[in-house]
# Entry
Amino acid sequence: MEKIIEVKNLTKKFKVPVKQGFVKSIFIPKNKEVVAVDNITFVVERGEAVAFLGPNGAGKTTTLKMLTGLLYPSEGQIKVMGFEPVKRNFGFLKKIALVMGNKSGLSWDLSARQSFDLFESIYGLKHETAVKTVEDLAELLEVTKSLDMPIRKLSLGQRLKMELIGAIMHKPEVVFLDEPTLGLDVVAKRNIREFLRNTNKDNGTTIILTSHDMADIEKVCDRVIVINKGKIIFDDAIGKLTGRYRDRKYLTLVFKEEVDEEEVAKYGKIVDKKPLTFTIEVAGEDQAKVIAAVGEKLPIEDIDITHVPLDEIMADMFKKG
Amino acid sequence: MRLSDFKQAIKIRWKIVQSCTIFGLKESLAYSLNNWGNLASMVLYMVTYLIFLDVLFGKVNRIAGYNYSEMLFFTLIVQINFYLLFIFTQGNVETLDQSINSGELDLWLAKPVPDLWFVSFRKINLGELFFSALPATIPLLVILSGRWNDFKMPLGGIIAGLICIFLGQIIIHCFQFIIGMTAFFTGEGKKAMSMSVELSVFGDAIPLEGYPTWLKYIGLTVIPFIIHTALAASFFLGKNTNYNYLWYVFGLAIAFLVLKVMAWKFALRHYSSASS
# Structure
């Protein structure tokens, strides 16, 4: 498979001011160096959908911004489709798209369609092709009726869909998305995830995504790169990540009546509790025994067995990292 | 660079200016009440200023060697330059500052456009021409209409004056942009921008001949507030016939353009982008 992104020993350092007295900070400012991305190396092949995952401040967005040429690396090399992103070659910029969940590239005062007219000129698209592409994408995202409304009057979900349309109307080969479902409701998130998944599978578009929402990662991406404190601590398929925790199971116990927490704790570590419901963590090999014991000794209504959720896996990794 | 590449580069830039002009016009028409309010304000300002000039010249015959009609013509040159700056420069510098502060610049930098050209002409506010510039200039033109014979405009002076306005606008545009780029390092540059605007219009009430020599030198060099207004008016009215100045102005325009490009490249290299 063709390597579309190659990153080698990439590092990014920022200078941040050191807290001092008021007068000193004006006349003798002091800075300290913060390493946001610390010597990371990875490769992405054409057509992959890769997620960057990590806690706040891990370096995910900084990495994304270096891949799109917005930030200069302090050290290391980046090649995206054979281009060095910081050189901002037109050939490179025409083949990528950037969507940032909390930033807008559309005019607040005009309709999305009017902003798309401007993008059409910028990308040098034929008018008929651009119009058809926009109509098709709007239909897929169910926002056709909102194309001519001012952006300021759209809901957050509709606005983000318009941002997506504006970003990919020129049919880029690589789409970079930074928190694309931030602040959206469940239905809007589902629509966008489906859309991104289909764009990746049907068009072969390479997707690079950062998100805190595990469902974004699970539903859209096949591979996850986990970054913590600027370093890569995991880089493989999502299945391999969850596979590491296959020996643990979560049992969600729904009771017919109130049960003492101490009674439930005898069977496993309590990870969540709600009225009449406890979720406990047990070793995979013990799950049958525990289920039998709980069914016998406690007034059980229902039991649900799940793998360890991805967000718990992440929390565990970040704690160790 | 090959000729075909050069032609393509010109074509892209022209397309950007065209598209952004149409886009800017649509944006300025989006809130029509704003435009009418602005028009009233600008017309009132102009009328007040003309009354002031009338009162002033009721007491004196000349100011810095300019009679009343010449002073009105000087005011017309200042007015034209003010609105050219407002339409082509100020909105873009403000937008650059806002986009650096909010992080929206990231989305523009990821588009296949010549980035400096795009941020320089992203907001061409032609609405200002129709809703502010023309209406506010009408009272001035009405008073001037009966006074064109009160001053002479040699052909050489007219050409030199037009060149000064064109090159002076380039210089002052670069000046405002360079100051506006401090936002890359400070995160926000409203005050710096406001200062650059004030400096740009510093020469709006004083003809070239009224400046002390030291201030004239400053206005013709590091803080170029004289070139597009006072120097241009001086050429138009035949008060200055030293056309060698134009070579200097041309060189200064090139120098400021080079400085602007260098400042932009330096700023981008150190751009840290707003956090998500």
Remarks:
- Residues 15 and 258 of chain B are 23 Å apart (CA to CA).
